[in-house]
Specification:
Helices cover about 50% and strands about 10% of the residues. It has a six-stranded mixed β-sheet with strand order 3-2-1-4-5-6, sandwiched between helices. It is elongated and about 70 Å long.
């Protein structure tokens, strides 16, 4: 999977949906726009990059609204650019995530065992990456830590990403090697919680069974219905879920987790208490 793949797939899915809405065949679109039916088919199938001028023609014909048009044009334009992350030797699926975070207006994430990457300190990130990769040497881990820290710029940009994070209490008590690593990480959560666009809730160990029992996930939102994407991360692979009905299931699961989690104030009090108890 190359870095623009998710962008192209999102763009292609929306172009096909819009064409179906206005009930036009490929041949009819070709006649009205001058774009060949084969090119339109390749755009919808995400098998080629998109020229913004071509996308503008299609959006005009389909009568797409302003918000959707702006988003789809951003996919076409940004997909042709190199992002800062492409100077690093990272997995393509990870590059996908960073590029989507850069475009997203919101992220809702549930983490059952780890502090979310957007909220990690460098020391905690180094410990987490080393533990998960198992055999990566320090010279491989170091640039990955740099990338993770750079990702956090989405929270401090002029129009910052809105982050909703639900973290299981277990993640607050996991041991991280190194003096003060976990204590500093818990303080980092408290610092981020002061941002008006960041909300952190803790799911307590004594919570009733919940939809998050199957594992963590992140919902990347783009400000328009049907455009959101869900990311599922595994040890050696990641999966993007794009079907609106499936994304809707994860959105419902996140809201149920929100209801099961401690309130914002009680969550911060628990983080304070865990920080006080931290021995390292």
């Amino acid at each position: 999977m190359t870095a623009p793949t998710v962008r192209r797939r999102r763009l292609g899915l929306e172009l096909r949906r819009l064409r179906d809405q206005v009930n036009l065949t490929l041949e009819e679109v070709e006649a009205r726009t001058g774009l060949s039916s084969s090119k339109i088919s390749r755009l919808e199938g995400a098998t080629r990059g998109a020229r913004p001028a071509d996308i503008e023609k299609l959006l005009g014909l389909y009568g797409a609204d302003e918000t959707l048009s702006a988003f789809l044009l951003s996919l076409a334009k940004e997909g042709r650019k190199r992002g800062w992350w492409q100077t690093y030797d990272i997995a393509p699926v990870y590059a996908d995530l960073i590029s989507l975070e850069a475009d997203a207006s919101s992220v809702s994430t549930f983490e059952p065992l780890l502090i979310p990457g957007l909220l990690q300190t460098a020391s905690y990130a180094r410990a987490a990456i080393s533990a998960i990769s198992m055999t990566a040497p320090p010279e491989v881990v170091a640039p990955l830590v740099e990338v993770r820290m750079a990702r956090q710029s989405v929270l401090t940009r002029p129009a910052p990403l809105k982050l909703r994070a639900i973290i299981h209490e277990t993640a607050l008590t996991a041991r991280a090697p190194g003096p003060g690593v976990m204590r500093d990480q818990l303080q980092r959560l408290l610092d981020f919680a002061e941002y008006p666009h960041v909300t952190i809730q803790i799911l307590p160990c004594d919570a009733e069974l919940h939809p998050g029992a199957t594992g963590g996930f992140a919902i990347l939102g783009f400000g328009s219905p049907g455009l959101d994407v869900v990311l599922l991360e595994h040890l050696n692979s990641s999966l993007y879920i794009e079907d609106p009905a499936d994304v809707g299931d994860y959105s419902e699961a996140f809201e149920r987790l929100t209801a099961s989690a401690l309130s914002f104030d009680r969550s911060l009090n628990l983080i304070h208490a865990k920080k006080k108890d931290a021995r390292q």
